[in-house]
Amino acid sequence: VEISPLPLVQGSTVSIKVASKHPVKLSGFLNGYPLHFMSGEDGMYYALQGIYALAEPGLADFDLSGTNEDGSTFTFSQKVLLNPGQFDEDPPLVVDPATIDPTVTEPENELVNSLVSNVTPTRYWTGVFQSPAEYQYYNSLFGTRRTYNGDPKVVFHAGVDFGGGITLPIYAPADGKVVLARSLTVRGNTVFIDHGWGVYSGFFHQNSLKVKVGDFVTKGQVIG
Q1: Is the model's pTM score more than 0.90?
Q2: Separation between Cα atoms, residue 59 and residue 178, nearest integer Å
Q3: 62 contacts 35 by C-beta, under 8 angstroms
């Protein structure tokens, strides 16, 4: 069993790799989140898992369970170190109250979570993801700590803001299937792409959409 990279870091993604000489069914949890294992080549099994950007630093639980071909089972548990991430902090932000109203944000988040919690066993992508933007200029990075409208509660920026302006194309970073393409209250014109193996990409605040649900897009294709 190999977890990489270690230690875990807030806001990062880790891969869990299991080598077995015989076919095995695997399941597990990392810091409370379920692991979904996919079979690769040469007896290797892989799971990818993001670490919540506000996860409590300290010792996180790693639990692994397996069932062999003959029906016998095994379990393995270990604590792994989870370190704080290094994130910027935005000045206090003032936004439309509707975009932080729980009666608006919670249903929208539930919709998104219902989509991205599905794990497609087919891996659609190959190689390294490309940037979705024409220019590599960033207005705000993932994980940046924020407060809104005078509320002292600290939250984090769940995406990356690319600069450049209206009319510039937005590209699919890798092959995958479009699972959402419509306007949302908080995220604006939104596209989600399922790349397989539980990996998704999402694109928000677009001026216009160029794809629809069910489309299979390829790396570099204009989606909005």
Answers
A1: yes
A2: 37
A3: no
